[in-house]
Amino acid sequence: MKKRGLLLVLSGPSGAGKGTVCRALLKNEPSLRLSVSATTRPPRPGEVDNVDYFFLDSEIFNKMIKDGEFLEYAQVYNNYYGTPQPFVEESLKEGHDIILEIDIQGALQVKEKYPEAVLIFIAPPSKFDLKKRLFSRGADAREVIEKRLHCASDEMKLADRYDYIVVNDQVIRAVERIRSIIIAEKSRPHNFKRLLNSFN
Length: 200
Description:
The protein has helices spanning 18-28, 58-66, 85-93, 104-113, 127-137, 142-156, 171-186, 193-197; strands at residues 7-11, 32-34, 38-39, 54-55, 70-76, 79-84, 97-101, 118-123, 164-167. By secondary structure, the chain is of the alpha/beta class.
């Protein structure tokens, strides 16, 4: 029998660097598979359907919600984002480790459906660092950044509902911490039932 794969969920406030950490982790851990999200927003330049996202129209997305096909979904501004459940479930059954990079609301939805999911909160080293990162991006207006910082304060309060907190002071260090979590999770007794039962 194949061992069931590990479901890892990465999330954290905007500017914490979860996307950068996730990409670096996937590069260093070839056994990990990234779950592709579905969205109703149009593709951005350079984005490829079925690779970056499953780009769906609102009608199809709403039908998938009614049919219970999402592991989690959320409306962000005027667009919907969600994680299709069949891909995740099939991959886990096949023994593949899956990583989701999703928002906090979605992560907590996943934990309800999959209590065995491992939730990792990517945190900035400090509020000052987060502010510096958001401003150095140069992508958003001051009022947008202030709104993100306000949201970050609320999101940090939810960190204690996660299984682990990883402070992203340096991407390499953050990746190593997550790799240690993966090793620890794979060493839990329920993964060794066959071995333990063989001694009965």
